[in-house]
TrEMBL record:
Lineage: Bacteria, Pseudomonadati, Pseudomonadota, Alphaproteobacteria, Hyphomicrobiales
SMP-30/Gluconolactonase/LRE-like region domain ranges (all copies): 17-257
Protein name: Sugar lactone lactonase YvrE
Co-factor note (free text): Binds 1 divalent metal cation per subunit.
Keywords: Metal-binding, Zinc
C-alpha cells in the first residue's frame, strides 16, 4: 500500500537531475545539487528561502568540514568550498583524467570517512567505482560500478550499504566502525523487483533504510534485514535521494529529476525536478562532518 503523508514543495526550481541532499543542523540549512546543470541549492528551512549557486562544473554531493567549509564532490575532483564567499579550491583530483565520468551518490560515514561514487556521464556499463576518502587519502573500494547509489551506513557504523542500480540489488558490507572501511565482502541484502529502481538512500536512527525509488514516485523504507516496511508517495516520478531535515530530523527532504523525459512525459509529471518536504514521522540521524586529516 502506498502511504500518503503531508507534503510540500521546498523548491519549485525543477532540477534536471536533483541529487545529493544533506542537512546542516547547526544552521538549519539543507543543501542539494542539480548535477547536470552544475548548481548547488541552499535552503534555510526556517524562513523557506532558497539560494542557487552556480558551480561551473557537475557536482553531486558535499560533506560539512566545519562551520566555515564544505567538501564538494565534483566531476573532476574534490573541492573545499568556503561558505562565506563560495570560493572553491581543489583538494584532490578524482578521475580528472577521464572526462567521460562524473561523481554521483556519496555519503559521510560516522568516522568522517567519505564514500564517493562515480559513473559514466552516459551511464556506460562499469565505467565508475565507489571510493573512500579516509583521512585525506582516496582508495578504491568497489570498481566496475555502472550507477552507484544508496550509499549509507547503519547507526553503529558497522554496516555500509550501496547499490549498482542496473543490478537491482542492495548490498550490505561489514565495516570497521572506527574507520568506515570494509572488513568483509558485500552480500546481497535485497533484490528489487517491479516498477522503478533503487536510487539514493539514508539510514535512520533505528537502522531502517529509506530509499528513493527512481521511476516509481515513492520512497521505500526497509528493515536492516531487507524487509519493506513502508512505501511513501512522492509527487514526482523520478524521486532520486532522501535526507532527514528539521530540528528533530523527523521530516524527509526528497530530490527529483526530469532527466530523460520528453515533452509529453514532463507534461504528465508537472513537478518533476522539484524538491519536496515530507512529514514522514521519521527518526532521523544528523549527518557527520567529513574529516580531511
Amino acid at each position: 500500500m502506498m502511504e500518503q503523508v503531508p507534503t510540500s514543495v521546498l523548491s519549485a526550481e525543477q532540477c534536471h537531475l536533483g541529487e545529493g541532499p544533506t542537512y546542516d543542523a547547526t544552521t538549519d540549512t539543507a543543501w542539494w545539487f542539480d548535477i547536470r546543470e552544475g548548481k548547488l541549492f541552499e535552503a534555510q528551512l526556517g524562513s523557506g528561502s532558497v539560494r542557487i549557486h552556480a558551480l561551473g562544473r557537475m557536482a553531486s554531493a558535499l560533506g560539512r568540514i566545519d562551520a566555515e567549509r564544505q567538501l564538494i564532490v565534483a566531476e573532476d575532483g574534490l573541492y573545499i568550498r568556503k561558505l562565506a564567499d563560495g570560493a572553491m579550491t581543489l583538494f584532490c583530483p578524482l578521475e580528472a583524467d577521464n572526462p567521460a565520468t562524473r561523481s554521483n551518490d556519496c555519503r559521510v560515514h560516522q568516522s568522517g570517512t567519505f564514500w564517493i561514487g562515480t559513473m559514466g556521464k552516459k551511464a556506460e556499463p562499469k565505467a565508475g567505482a565507489i571510493y573512500a576518502l579516509h583521512r585525506g587519502k582516496i582508495s578504491t573500494l568497489f570498481p566496475g560500478i555502472s550507477i552507484p547509489n544508496s550509499i549509507c551506513f547503519s547507526p553503529d557504523g558497522a554496516t555500509g550499504y550501496f547499490t549498482d542500480t542496473p543490478r537491482a540489488m542492495l548490498y550490505a558490507v561489514p565495516l570497521n566502525p572506527a574507520t568506515g572501511l570494509p572488513r568483509g565482502e558485500p552480500e546481497v541484502l535485497l533484490r528489487h523487483s517491479g516498477i522503478g529502481g533503487l536510487d539514493g538512500s539514508v539510514c535512520d536512527a533505528d537502522g531502517q533504510i529509506w530509499n528513493a525509488c527512481w521511476g516509481a514516485s515513492r520512497v521505500d523504507v526497509y528493515s536492516p534485514q531487507g524487509e519493506r516496511l513502508r512505501s511513501i508517495g512522492v509527487p514526482a516520478k523520478q524521486a532520486s535521494c532522501p535526507a532527514f531535515v528539521g530540528p528533530d530530523l523527523s521530516r524527509l527532504l526528497v530530490t527529483s529529476a526530469w532527466q530523460d523525459m520528453d515533452a509529453a512525459a514532463r507534461a504528465a509529471d508537472p513537478q518533476a525536478g522539484c524538491t519536496f518536504l515530507l512529514e514522514a514521522s521519521a527518526r532521523g540521524r544528523a549527518e557527520p562532518d567529513v574529516k580531511l586529516a
